Amino acid sequence: MPETPPLVVWRGNLSTAARLRRIGVFCVSPAMLWLGFFFILPLLMLLAIAFATRSPSGGVEWAFSIDAFKRLAGFGSFGWSPANGYILLRSLWIASATTAICMLLAYPLAFFIATRPARTRMFWLIALTVPSWTNLIVRTYAWLILLGPESVIARVAAALGFSDPGDALFPSTFATLLGMITAFLPFMAMPLYSAAEKLNWNLVEAAQDLYGGRWRTFRHGILPQTSSALFVGVILTFIPAMGMFIVSDILGGARFMLIGNLIQTQFAFGSGNPPYAAAISLVLILFTLLIIALFSRFGGKREELV
Amino acid sequence: MRKLPTWVNALGLFALTLLYLPLIGVVIQSFNDSRVGLAWKGFTFKWYERLWLNADIHQAAWNTVVVATVSTVIATVLGTALAFGLARLPWTRRNLTAFDNVLYLPVVTPEIIMAAALVVMISVMRHVHTIFDFGLPIIIIGHVTFQISFVALTVRSRLASLPANLDEAACDLYSGGWNLFRRVTLPLAMPGITAGALLAFILSLDDFVITYFTAGPRITTLPIFIYASQRKGITPEIHALSTVMLLCTVVLVFIAVRFVNGKRGHTPANG
């Protein structure tokens, strides 16, 4: 007599362990194979070509070398140069400044929306969602109109002596920063809004009752209740800002290079250097992993990132 | 009602203004009867007419819609199956952690890294099969790759919010297996699936980086068309195109509010 497999009850269903496993594998494997083949495998290839050699035609030759990393460290064909260091520092600076200013603007914005009466709150929430769903190219090139030489902003800047009359305010660091801030502000404001909506105002009142000034009310009454949302906002802003190349390309001009622009130009066919681009990508990946590790270290939940 | 200091409200509104200022500028300029410059020379629909007659834009719009639709369908099927498999079947903790790591990786990876990795893959695999060469198929593949995670995570959080005794009750009523999935789990998960699919669709429409890296020289989508045009010098037609895209975004946001938040029974009062 053949041995029958032991039956199990799973969520009210009578089944066998083997059958459940079969269904599980059937459901999970298509997506996992897809991600494995089109995401993990390409990432590993990227990793691998960072240690390969650039072919004279701008392709890849599969010979091991660490030339890409030497070049990354600044050792080019003309000796050592700090150019790469500047690009890295500039990216860090722009990403940090963007994150900080987004924070300063997102708090008031999130709390403004969260304190609207229930009837109109949906309207304001939609008002915040529309820009975040609008194409970034559109939102970025749109600044070219407002910062053009004839615009009000450019005239005011000229009148105040920040620029010469008749000059456009782009390409410039200011324009890039403005584009970056408006690109990421919704992604900082959204998680903060969710936290502000659920805020326990008794704690804020308690801080005020205990003679806390504005800063200490914020520090002890609001910040602890919104800190995990803030961390989510920082991740959603800082990581993509480090890899950004559209905004700096459109508003920063050709000489304003960020890591993202460097990767983009080095992948160009013929003139590029794919191993070098892969090595720079690796730096960016390490940054990302570092920030995510910090996030988990301080008790952040990954579910909040979506 | 909580009162905020006036300066906080003012700063909040200023932040919102900063988001809308450039968009309003584009919309106004799209109706301005002036080829160059900001000065108002009268109201016109001329740029929209030119837009309508521009065959390149038709092709780009068609490509954009094809990519978004095909990739959303694939990602929704794969992502929903994955979410169901993870949420409704017994996995060991170790397996779940491993799946989670793979699932969250595309969410946190900067787009340019995904794009760069795909380019490397193309350069190796294009000799194996033409599907891996630059063009529409590989754009769709790239989009599905970042969409899957968003669909799966959205659907899974919906499935996780449903109590297990719904399944048990259905089984007591002689449901089970495929019938249980088809008649109970799937309808209950539908709001999550719709939300995930909508999110995937929008992510695809908005994508520039991955499309730009994988499109190759012949394929254009709307974001790529705008990017290329602003390099050559912006024309008012681009403003008109952007205004149309903005309008589509607004419509999609309202659809999302209507369908996804429908379970709250709350539609925008000021819609």
* Pair with the biggest interface: A-B, 100 and 111 residues
Q: Which band does the percent of strand residues of chain B land in?
A: under 5%
- Amount of helix of chain B: over 70%
Specify Rg of chain A, calculated over alpha carbons: 25 Å
Distance between the termini of chain B: 23 Å
Put simply, the count of helices of chain B is 11
- What's the main sheet of chain B like? none
Number of strands of chain A: 6
Shape of chain A: flat
- Given as residue ranges, the uncertain stretches of chain B (5+ residues, pLDDT < 50) are 262-271
Structural class of chain B: mainly alpha
Q: What does the main sheet of chain A amount to?
A: 2 strands, antiparallel
Number of H- or I-type helical stretches of chain A:
12
Task: Kindly summarize this structure in a few lines.
With 306 residues, chain A is mainly alpha-helical. Chain A has helices spanning 17-49, 67-72, 83-114, 118-133, 136-146, 152-159, 173-197, 201-209, 214-242, 246-252, 259-266, 274-297; strands at residues 7-10, 13-16, 53-54, 60-61, 75-76, 79-80.
List the defining traits of the structure above.
heterodimer, A: about 300 residues, two-stranded antiparallel ribbon, 6 strands, flat, B: about 270 residues, mainly alpha, disordered C terminus
SSE arrangement:
The complex is a heterodimer of chains A (306) and B (271).
Chain A: E1 7-10, E2 13-16, H1 17-49, E3 53-54, E4 60-61, H2 67-72, E5 75-76, E6 79-80, H3 83-114, H4 118-133, H5 136-146, H6 152-159, H7 173-197, H8 201-209, H9 214-242, H10 246-252, H11 259-266, H12 274-297
Antiparallel strand pairs in A: 1-2, 3-4, 5-6
Chain B: H1 6-30, H2 46-53, H3 55-88, H4 93-108, H5 111-125, H6 136-160, H7 165-172, H8 177-206, H9 209-214, H10 222-232, H11 236-260
Helix pairs in contact in B: 1-11, 2-11, 3-6, 3-8, 4-6, 6-8, 8-11
